[in-house]
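Posting this for the archive.
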Amino acid sequence: IKDFDPKGILTPKESRRFGRFVQFGIISAEEALQDAGITLPRDALIVGGTSRAGVYELERVFLNGGHPTGYIMLSTMASMLSSALAERFRTSGEAITISGACASGAMAIGYTYRAIKEGRAEVALCGGAEAPVTEFTLKGYSRMGVLSRLSPDRAERPFDKLRDGFVLGEGATFLVLEELGHALRRNARVYAEVVGYALVVNPENHVAPSKEAEVEVIKKALEDATMTPEEIEHINTHGTATKQGDLIEAESLKEVFGGSLNSIALSAIKPSTGHMLSGSSAFEVAVTGWAISEGIVPPSIRSEDLDFPLNLYQNHLKRNIKTAMSLSFGFGGVNMAVVLKAFEG
């Protein structure tokens, strides 16, 4: 994010104390609350997700010859994401940070969904925040062979024959999740309902994608939502444009959805944002809800010459969407799926 300047939103104290990823999170959360038209109650649940936490501050201080301030330990803690939000919005309920690689933001949404479903919360703020664009992170992912080496106007091509990896990005997405009755009582706008969630970990390999785990998590999320594969109308894919990752994801989708995959509109939106890690997984759940609300399938701007028979569109597509799924997979063997549906009240 070029020329990022939190002045006017964050206080000078917050700017000094909080890491870049936390600052992104605070700004995103403020926008979410404004859009929802709500002030968080004292007992609101706050769940944040992050993968790389304070890597930006650590590099700036230790790799670039800087000097740590008294805030360095706080500014780099993953848990400061939720703690800072609790401080900002004056809540004293549960505030936790989840870390599960790039699926962390969506995992935070899934945890929140479960908490509300089980009656442990009525109103919650949840999402993911990430500031991973550093020399350390770029070199690390490059050594893993997952970053695209194509020119900027061609890089990150999910499910395309020329795919060779992703482009690293940064950002944050937070949502207000409410128990439906609570939202209706205050006449809130309901973009979509979260109706299913599943998380499956592949214990066999922390790097390579697992078809078995991906198939299992999709099936479990559908089961949680009491839906069949034939009922899903839109899928936001994980789509990182890595050779093996996209191959396994395409095979997993084919195994679960079979012939019905031919009628499902898919999207792979990371080329529009870069891969924001936990920020992307939360963002893509939010975009999936927005797609349902607006009746628009988001464009997959770099998926031009497809390597698989999938319904991806380079331009947005107007379509009435009643049910949708968002997928996020991550290093460490993390596999996550969220199911949403249109609110028909």
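The first strand starts at residue 45 and ends at 49. Residues 194 and 340 are 4 Å apart (CA to CA).
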